[in-house]
Fold each of these.
Amino acid sequence: MDDNRRILPDFLHRAYTQIINDTEHLGVSVVNTLLPGNLTGIYDEATKLILIDQRLISAQQRCTLAHELVHWEHADETCSGTLGSKIERHARMETASKLIRPCEYALAENEYDGDAYAIACELDVTVQVIEDFRTYLAMSQDMAGQRQNTLYRI
Ligand SMILES: [Zn+2]
């Protein structure tokens, strides 16, 4: 398979097992197992293997799998050091943007008065992903603002 062309299927409204089915042809294997400590998932670029902790509840499974698949998409090899934290931050933002549609988020935020836990339940994601999505939205708005400023300067 051409490593430069890794394209993920749509995660929106797809359950954990559906995402596994959707990605079967990508050459990446997903194994449920017991992971040490607080680890929920691991991606190994050398073997194209994703490990998912078997004790996770369904929203966690789904979000962890999506996150590890984003690492696969970018062929991420490290999660340590400065580069690692940059990669990790990027993967988290991208995962949130792939799991949540902005209009659905806006409706849920209205409906549940901004309660992250209730919004997470409604959208079948983790609270962490909701927090990442909020950061993602804030960053997108900052970037849009900067573009606007550049335009005004010209
Ligand atoms: Zn990660």
Amino acid sequence: MKKLRNLMRLFSAIRNFSLMKLGAWSLRLLSLLLFCFAAMFVALPSEAAIPQQTVTHNACWASISAGVLHIIALKSDGTLWAWGYNWAGQLGDGTNTNRWSPIQITGTCGDTVPPVVTVSAIPAPNTNGWNNTDVTVRFTCDDAGSGIASCPSPITVTTEGTGQIITGTAVDKAGNSASTFVTLNIDKTYPVITISGVSNGATYALGLAPTASYTVTDALSGVATSNASLTGGDGLGLTYTVTASDNAGNTITVSAAYNVIATTDGLNSLIQQMLASGQIDNAGIANSLLSKVLNAADAAARGNVQASDNIMQAFINQVTAQSGQHISASAAAILINAATYIINN
Ligand SMILES: [Ca+2]
Ligand SMILES: [Ca+2]
């Protein structure tokens, strides 16, 4: 304000002097010149506020030009930079904000180079090219010329399917555009396992129990692996377990637990199966064992439990003697377990 008052006094003194010494035409011209000078002077910041610029921006400056309290400079990479006072928009950044360090001045003139756009899928697919969760697609856009005008926002893909193409387009401020895409294979559904032969919770007679088996299907990425196992203690309680994985990494396990109880009928059937499969390699021995089982069943049917148990014990003795001989060791163990179960129950 002090500076302004001094200017006004100077203006008034010159005007008074002019009234005395100059004609009306000269007075108007002088007044106009003084007014312009004063307006410019008042608009300028005080000397104390003039920034003391230190160009620390790490770049190779090719050319620098100083204006009225501002600097315009060109880097060796062709980009234009400016800093300093900006009350009249002299920095060319479209604002009136003073800048105390170099800012890049962008424009669209001469930019004919499309932007660079890259895409990434998160999480990345597995080695089979599949995801088993939602996938977020992110785009990264860059433009060394006029700068990026628009870049696609991230997209979360939740839909299952094969060959889903997600495209994104980047546009620079000169209107050049570039697109890229990613192909997604998403499978979030477990394989379907079907166990057949045995049923969960069922009870079967030893030798009459059906053979457990399974099928597995997968409608999207397809079955990658599957396997089955039969576990159990002494052969009375068994669990058939199937594990399957699809190519997207969805893994599921299904099991059927069932009981196998030794009965004389079941033991009969088992001996015949073992003879047919070669686990018992002598028909005479097989017939002898079958005869013992029938006699034991008859004795039990008459209510003579002790006689039945004695016959089954003779059965066990014969199997034990033939184990590893005419009866395979594994088959002998099953027969002995079954006969022991019949005696104890
Ligand atoms: Ca461009
Ligand atoms: Ca699947």
